[in-house]
Specification:
Blueprint lengths: L3 E8 L3 E3 L12 H9 L3 E7 H16 L5 H12 L1 E5 L11 E4 L3 H10 L4 E5 L2 H9 L5 E7 L7 E2 L7 E10 L5 E10 L1
Parallel strand pairs: 1-6, 1-7, 3-4, 3-6, 4-5
Antiparallel strand pairs: 2-8, 7-10, 9-10
Helix pairs in contact: 2-3
């Protein structure tokens, strides 16, 4: 069975996006990228519409930009090659290479995907997907980048999520002030 790993930046007050979906408070730290990359091995990404559109509008261009930092180009190429499952009831098509539009039942589709062969599955952003899959017990691990900022409002990562016990697997702190928290799922309360 494949493992589903959530990978999200979270403000100290628990938001994965600020007011109006703002993510300008994210801190880019190549050391954090390297450490988090070592903790998971995904070949598939689950996206909601908004996060997919944000990624699709940015990363393919980085892969083709010779002036982009080497680490960013490598990340962009890796993202291009990964399977991208986009869950949306409003999109009519997806154009980023290796993307598949899914308009069916999220939980059923993810259960099938989890039972298939392959490497880890990850979720970036996509808070409503994280919330639904957490409530269904389908998330195996959380990699949370606790970012040293108070956003003061926005989209909470665990809105309307039922109680879950987590086991701390690892923690690392970085000069940027980010603390990487790696949790595995124990059992529901």
């Amino acid at each position: 069975m494949r493992k589903i790993v959530v990978f999200n930046s979270v403000s100290i007050d628990g938001y994965y996006a600020g007011p109006n979906g703002a993510i300008d408070w994210f801190i880019h730290d190549p050391e954090v990228d390297k450490a988090s990359h070592e903790m998971m091995n995904p070949d598939t990404i689950l996206f909601g519409r908004l996060t997919y559109q944000m990624f699709e509008g940015y990363w393919p261009g980085v892969a083709k930009n010779p002036n982009a930092p080497e680490g960013a180009r490598l990340m962009a190429e890796e993202l291009n090659q990964m399977t991208k499952m986009v869950f949306s009831t409003t999109l009519e098509e997806v154009s980023w290479e290796n993307s598949k539009l899914c308009s069916g039942n999220l939980v059923e589709e993810v259960r099938k995907l989890k039972d298939s062969k392959g490497a880890d599955i990850t979720i970036f952003g996509s808070g409503t997907i994280v919330q639904q899959l957490t409530n269904e017990g389908l998330i195996d691990e959380y990699l949370l980048l606790l970012t040293p900022v108070v956003v003061g409002g926005g989209k909470p990562l665990f809105k309307d999520v039922t109680s879950h016990k987590l086991q701390l697997l690892d923690t690392r702190s970085f000069a940027s002030g980010i603390v990487l928290l790696h949790y595995g799922v124990n059992a529901r309360d």
